[in-house]
Structures are given as structure tokens and as C-alpha cells.
Write a structure and sequence with these properties.
The complex is a heterodimer. By secondary structure, chain A is an alpha/beta fold. Chain A has one domain: Rossmann fold (3-Layer(aba) Sandwich), CATH 3.40.50. Chain A is built from 14 helices and 8 strands. The N and C termini of chain A lie far apart (about 70 Å). Chain B folds into 2 domains: about 180 residues, no CATH class; about 220 residues, no CATH class. The two termini of chain B are about 15 Å apart. In chain B, about 70% of the residues lie in helices and about 0% in strands. Chain B is globular, with a radius of gyration of 23 Å. By secondary structure, chain B is an all-alpha fold. Classes of the chains: A alpha/beta, B mainly alpha. The interface between A and B is medium-sized, with 25 and 22 residues.
């Protein structure tokens, strides 16, 4: 029995080493068709690499933006700076609350924002968060928070990519990466915004769907809100505008609104501003630059109102 | 709790360590631990059905004793039929009520009557088909004076509920398993290592082969109207390997797990896709069920005694019942009938026991004759699986009609065809490994004889790595759990 247990432990140790070496070789040399459970792409869509390269130079912000592609394609930091706001956009592709929590844990202290505008998109609460976790693993340094995220997602693709990411970090093989500012029809704007070349969406029908929030996403979301409130930072939750047809395809928008309202000051822009499905969007759910400008101006009004409310509360005290 | 889950990966070592250390080799304590662990394992599915399992266990335990104690044959028979009717009654209600009610109503509507017997919203208790057959074989064996009843309730309960075989077999016999439960078990190093090796191979079969094939089999079968004949052939092939990888993978994990506790379960699969005729296939596929039907249905019906017509009738009966055992759907019955029809020429020519050994024994390749018979048998099996997998008979017929159309000669095309190519390559590698290991108990059993430790361990680690690299994101339950 003793021999059996010792050999089993030795084999497990051997297998772990084998797995690490094989994963590294596989990740470096195997064809992508063989890597369905390993997806490590630095500089993938969304410019997260460039954004995170900038984030360490930012501090004492007026506004920090968080959320999915609707955040980094929706909040143009240049517009906000025209109004005197020092902002940074920390959105990332398909960012779900599980990933938002990781980014906040890493950068909140340093960024020290007065206000956080957190873009909440129903789809971010209904997915497992694998896609976004891969984006963060490949484009940021990996630490304990990455491991915590992987355990929460509990998906083999996230585990493999994280192990590979740790190896890449350790060997420094990802340090020489350079991401160009302009890719195809997109440009990275300093401050985290990604500008898409002006284009117009073709209207399209959407299948009816219901918002069904995942419990682990909601739990992470609650933890994020608690952290932000603990730090005495103003939190504004924003449901960014999407095409009317897309918005109408959700049967239970009221349900989502009611949940969000419980957590903080919440603004559903689909009920606040009226945009045109073609003129103000470049695809099925992202604003084009014309839409971004209208959305951001309205957002600035809200920020001003929130600030004056806060001041009033402060003065009455 | 399923075998390919993290929960089981935690559960198994805990039970294993307690079994060999905490009980200090005390047989009574070991059996109590096995029983408690088995009930815990089962309760993880649905604790409510544990009462059904316990009731079924108690019923067969007491009827077994009553059959033995009864002095008159009439009383013995009464207790036997009590057990059979209650066991099959539960199975009938949970598994077949809706099928019979719907079929009866359909039958009446054919002659102009309208009937609505209503349907019951019942969940099928997992493993009911397996533990019911366990219990039945036990009481029938007592009735036939093959065995004496087990007086120790714990030992008998372990025989029915031993967790590796509880939910999907192998269907054990009291003559084989009970003596092992009653006997003091010593830890056997080579048996335990062999058990781990078999678990590893079972996991590979289930996770890498079956679950990947399932993705495409489900896609193609669920949308068969959208695809060409050539794609539908691929769909049938994917299902062929899904069902084999899934069920034989489960059996390997079950057998391997049992060996860790010093118990040998009945072999359930013996490389069925290398069979040279359908009779050989049925000696190699789900062996514990086939032999159950042979011993408790075919032979009592007269078996092969009494002339050719009786033989044919009995063969059809066991195949039809076997089909029906799999599920309450006409598709399973047709699948069974089809296999009986395949069997017929062998029966008529008295050649159903020609291929009793392994194909190409001691050789690297089969000869041309063996190869052609293997391909033919495999083709017939794939064809029959279409009925097994289809949702309805009409679905199966439309599926086959499309295969037989001109679109058979087009290039297969479906969503994810590129990724499916990777799965096909994995299946080819898997078939080659199975071929080279076909004379062992399972494909990689002979790896244990490899003297070079680093190479042996590297091969095991390679299997683990391939599981990590190719397991699908979504965990799939075992197909046979629904039976």
C-alpha cells in the first residue's frame, strides 16, 4: 500500500511536470485547430494590451469606465476631457463581472477614481465569462486574482490558458510584444477608447430571448459594488444604448432594470435617449462615432447632476 | 456525481483511503463503508430515489430468504413472482407507462376510438434498469437453487448498490460478486495499478472520444433535414463512436474503480467493432446484459433446443426485449429487431459460434477475408445505430432516405467541419490503439508490461494531456444513464 501511495504521488508530480512542458510546446507550435482548449492571443480584438500598458501611468481619475466592448467603444475619453474630466476606460471584450473584479482588484487603488461608470450589459451576466478571461490572461500579468478568476469560471480552456500565461510570464516571452495603434478599421485612442471608422449598421431581426442571470456573475457583481462603496467612490451603473430592435428582442428588460436599481444609481440609456438603429450604430450592438457623441453628452449631463447632488448632500450635512 | 467530474475525483480517493486505512482491513467495516459511500454517491443524483433503491433491495433480500425457506414449490413460485412483478412494476411505471399509454391511445385511434390515458410527469430514477436486473437475477438464482440467499443485509445491499456499477452496470450476478463481498480483501498492488490504468483509459474514451463525437452526432441528428447524405453518414459514424466511447468508457472506469477496492466486476466490452459477424458483436458488446438475457430469458424460453423455429423465435424475443430495455421508444424496438434480422442468416446456417477468438490473433493485420467481414459487420452496426439514435421511426427513415439519395456523393458540410476533422483524427488514433491492444482486457492493459518506467509514465501522462487538450467545455452525462 505504501508503495502504491508513493508511486501515485510521484506519478501525479510527474504528470504535472509533463503537462506543463507539453502545454508549453503545444501552445508554441501546434496548429490553432488543435488548440481548442488553449487560446492565448496577445493583442487580440479590443486593444486590451495597449489599454493595460497605459493604465499604470494613470492615477487620481475623475471617472473610471468599466464594462464590456460597449464601454471601450462607447465612452470616448476625448469627449470627457473636453468637459474637464480626467478619465480612463478599463473596458474589455465581453467583460463579465468576474473579470471586472480582477481588474478592479489590480488597478483600483492606483487609479483612485472619484466616480466609476460601470457599463452593465445583460449578456455579460448571462455568459460563463470564458472568452473575456482569456483576453485578460493573455494581455495582463497573471497573479493570484487570475487564479481566483479561473477557479470561479471552472473551465478547462481558462485553466490551460492561465497555466500557459504563467509560463509565458515566467519566461518573459510576452514582453517584446508591440501592438499597433491602428488595426484594420479601428484606432486605439489614448485613455482606453477604441474608435471605429464611421460606418452604418444594416437593420436586422433578432431572435427573442430572455435575460437569465448567472448566479456566479451576480455574486461577483455584488462584491464589486460592495468594494466600490467601501472605498467611498460614486458608482453609476449604465446600460449603454443598443439598437431598438435588439433591445426589444429581450423579453424581460424590466427584470434586469429592477435588479440593477437595487445596487446603485442606474441609468438605462435605451429608455433615456432615442437613437436610430442605422445612423447611430456600426453593427448589431455597437455605437458608431455619431452615436458615441450623443451618448457621451447625455452621460456628461448625468455626471454633472450626480456631482451637484453629492455636493448638495455634503452641504446639508 | 458522474465519473468524469471533479466531485468524483475527490470522492474516490477519500473512500479509497478510508477503505484501506480507517477500517484496518475489517471486512464488516469495509462493507459498511462501501454501502454508505454508495448511498451517498446515489443520493448526489437525487436523494428521493434512494428510498426506491432501498425498497428494491429489501424486497429482493426478503423474498430471496422466503423463496429459500418455502417448502412447497407453489410458495416458492409465489414469492418469486412477487419479486418479479414488483420489480418490473416499478420499472414499468417509471420507464414505460407513458410509452404504453401513448401506444394504446394510438392503437385505439386507428380503429376509430379516442382515448386519453394521460401521461405521468416522472423522472426516470437513474440506474433503475440496472439494479432491477441485479435483484431479479438474485431471486431467480435462489429459485433455481443455484445459490443460497444472503443472510447479511449489508453484504446483500453492497451487492445491489456498489457505487461503481450502481448507475450503469455492468449487470452483476450474485454468483460472481457476492462471494467477493463476503471474502476478506487484501490490498493488491498490481490490481490497484491496473485499476488506475483502466480508469485512465475509460476517461480518455469518454471525454476525448465520446464527448467530442457527441458534439457532431447531436448537431447532425438534431438537424438531419438540413444535411446531405454524406454528412448524415458522418453523423452516424460519430454516433457509433460516441456510444462506444461513452458506454465502454464508463464500464472501464467502473471496473477500474472496483479493482481499487479489490473487487473484480464482469467485463462488459471486448472490442466489439472488430467483430467479424453480428453474433461475435453481441458476445463483445454490453456483455453483462447479453449474458443476462441469455441466462434469464433465452434459456428459460427453451434456448436453442426444440428446433430451428424455436431458436429463431427465442432469438427475436431476446433482441426485441433487449431493444425495449434500452428505452420506451419504438426506435429501440426496431433497433433490436434489426439486430435479430442480422442474426438470422448465422442462425440458419448454424454459424453463429464461428468467431470465438480475437480477430487476427497474434498478428499485426487481419487478412482480407477478416477485414471484409469486419467492415461488413461494422457497417450493419452503424446502420442499426441510426434507429437507436433517431428520435422517432419517421426520423430514422428520413435520415436513411437522405443517405440513399444522390447527396451521398457530395462533400460533407456542417458547422465546425474543420474541428470535426480533428475529432476524426483522434478517433482513428483511438481505433489503432484499440486494435493493438485487442487481445487484452482493455486496450492499454499491456502497457503495464512495459519495463521502462519513464516511457510508461510518459504515455499515461500523454493520455492525461490529451484529455486536457481535447475535452469539450461542456461536461456530458453518460448516455446509458438514461436507460
Amino acid at each position: 500500500m505504501k508503495k502504491f501511495l508513493l508511486n501515485t504521488v510521484a506519478f501525479l508530480f510527474f504528470s504535472c511536470l509533463f503537462y506543463l512542458v507539453a502545454l508549453f510546446i503545444w501552445g508554441r507550435f501546434a496548429h490553432s485547430i488543435l488548440k481548442s482548449n488553449l487560446d492565448y492571443k496577445i493583442g487580440s480584438t479590443g486593444y486590451l494590451y495597449s489599454r493595460l500598458s497605459e493604465v499604470n501611468n494613470q492615477k487620481d481619475l475623475d471617472v473610471l469606465f468599466l464594462g464590456s466592448s460597449h464601454a471601450y467603444r462607447g465612452f470616448d475619453t476625448r469627449i470627457f476631457s473636453k468637459y474637464g474630466y480626467k478619465t480612463f476606460n478599463l473596458g474589455s471584450s465581453s467583460q463579465t463581472p468576474i473579470q471586472t473584479k480582477v481588474l478592479l482588484n489590480r488597478y483600483l487603488k492606483n487609479l483612485n477614481p472619484k466616480t466609476i461608470v460601470y457599463e452593465v450589459y445583460p449578456a455579460s451576466f448571462t455568459v460563463d465569462g470564458v472568452e473575456s478571461s482569456l483576453d485578460i490572461i493573455a494581455n495582463d500579468k497573471n497573479d493570484f486574482y487570475s487564479l481566483e478568476m479561473a477557479l470561479k469560471i471552472n473551465n478547462i480552456k481558462t485553466y490551460n490558458t492561465l497555466i500557459y500565461g504563467f509560463i509565458m510570464d515566467l519566461l518573459g516571452l510576452n514582453r517584446s510584444f508591440y501592438e499597433p495603434i491602428r488595426k484594420a478599421n479601428e484606432t486605439y485612442i489614448s485613455g482606453g477608447f477604441v474608435e471605429h471608422e464611421l460606418a452604418y449598421a444594416k437593420p436586422q431581426p433578432f431572435l427573442q430571448q430572455r435575460i437569465s442571470i448567472k448566479q456566479n456573475q451576480l455574486q461577483s457583481f455584488s462584491e464589486i459594488v460592495a468594494t466600490i462603496k467601501r472605498e467611498n467612490i460614486d458608482l453609476i451603473l449604465v446600460y449603454a444604448p443598443i439598437p431598438k430592435m435588439k433591445y426589444a428582442s429581450y423579453d424581460n428588460n424590466g427584470y434586469f432594470d429592477s435588479i440593477m436599481k437595487k445596487y446603485s444609481d442606474y441609468h438605462n440609456f435605451n429608455e433615456i435617449i432615442s437613437l436610430n438603429d442605422t445612423l447611430h450604430f456600426y453593427d448589431s450592438h455597437h455605437l458608431n462615432q455619431l452615436g458615441v457623441e450623443l451618448f457621451n453628452k447625455k452621460m456628461i449631463e448625468i455626471l454633472i447632476n450626480t456631482a451637484s447632488k453629492t455636493r448638495n448632500i455634503g452641504s446639508t450635512r | 456525481m458522474i465519473f468524469n467530474s471533479w466531485n468524483f475525483a475527490l470522492f474516490l480517493p477519500i473512500v479509497f483511503l478510508q477503505y484501506w486505512f480507517a477500517t484496518k482491513g475489517n471486512l464488516k467495516l469495509q462493507n459498511i463503508l462501501l454501502l454508505v459511500s454508495s448511498y451517498f454517491f446515489y443520493a448526489c443524483w437525487d436523494w428521493r430515489f434512494m428510498f426506491l433503491l432501498i425498497f428494491s433491495t429489501l424486497l429482493d433480500y426478503f423474498t430471496g430468504i422466503k423463496i429459500h425457506e418455502a417448502s412447497k414449490q407453489k410458495n416458492k413460485r409465489w414469492w418469486l413472482w412477487l419479486s418479479i412483478s414488483v420489480n418490473l412494476g416499478f420499472l414499468g411505471v417509471f420507464k414505460y407507462y407513458n410509452f404504453f399509454a401513448a401506444s394504446f391511445a394510438d392503437g385505439l385511434s386507428l380503429i376509430g376510438f379516442k382515448a386519453n390515458l394521460g401521461s405521468l410527469r416522472l423522472i426516470l430514477p437513474v440506474g433503475i434498469s440496472f439494479y432491477t436486473f441485479h435483484g431479479l437475477s438474485y431471486v431467480i438464482d435462489i429459485y433455481k437453487n443455484r445459490i443460497k440467499p444472503e443472510k447479511n443485509l449489508v453484504d446483500y445491499s453492497v451487492f445491489v448498490s456498489f457505487f461503481p456499477l450502481l448507475v450503469a452496470g455492468p449487470i452483476e450476478r450474485a454468483t460472481h460478486l457476492l462471494p467477493q463481498i463476503q471474502k476478506k480483501r487484501e490490498f493488491d498492488y498490481s490490481k490497484a495499478v491496473d485499476g488506475l490504468r483502466q480508469i485512465l483509459w475509460g476517461l480518455f474514451k469518454k471525454i476525448v472520444i465520446a464527448d467530442n463525437c457527441a458534439e457532431y452526432a447531436n448537431l447532425i441528428f438534431n438537424n438531419s433535414g438540413d444535411y446531405s447524405g454524406s454528412t448524415l453518414v458522418l453523423g452516424a459514424l460519430f454516433f457509433t463512436f460516441q456510444i462506444y466511447g461513452d458506454f465502454s468508457g464508463y464500464s472501464d472506469i467502473a471496473l477500474g474503480t472496483a479493482r481499487l477496492f479489490g473487487i473484480d466486476l464482469l467485463r462488459n466490452f471486448a472490442f466489439p467493432y472488430f467483430s467479424r459477424d453480428i453474433a461475435e458483436f453481441w458476445r463483445r458488446w454490453h456483455i453483462s446484459l447479453s449474458s443476462w438475457f441469455k441466462d434469464y430469458l433465452y434459456i428459460p424460453l427453451g434456448g436453442s433446443k426444440g428446433g430451428m423455429w424455436i431458436k429463431i423465435r427465442n432469438t427475436f424475443i431476446i433482441f426485441l426485449v433487449s431493444g425495449f430495455w434500452h428505452g420506451a421508444n419504438w426506435t429501440f424496438i426496431v433497433w433490436g429487431a434489426l439486430n435479430a434480422i442480422y442474426f438470422l442468416p448465422l442462425l440458419l446456417s448454424n454459424s453463429n459460434r464461428h468467431n470465438l477468438d480475437s480477430v487476427a490473433q497474434g498478428k499485426l493485420f487481419p487478412n482480407l477475408k477478416e477485414l471484409s467481414f469486419m467492415v461488413l459487420t461494422f457497417g450493419l452496426t452503424v446502420f442499426a445505430w441510426i434507429f437507436f439514435r433517431a428520435n422517432t421511426i419517421a426520423h430514422a427513415i428520413s435520415y436513411i432516405s437522405e443517405i440513399l439519395s444522390g447527396s451521398l456523393f457530395t462533400i460533407p458540410n456542417f458547422e465546425g467541419v474543420g474541428k470535426a476533422f480533428t475529432t476524426s483524427v483522434l478517433v482513428v488514433i483511438f481505433v489503432l490503439v484499440e486494435w493493438q491492444g485487442r487481445e487484452g482486457q482493455y486496450a492499454i492493459a499491456n502497457l503495464g508490461q512495459l519495463r521502462n518506467l519513464p516511457i510508461r509514465w510518459s504515455l499515461y501522462a500523454l493520455l492525461l494531456f490529451s484529455i486536457g487538450m481535447f475535452m469539450p467545455s461542456v461536461e456530458s452525462p453518460f448516455v446509458y444513464f438514461q436507460f
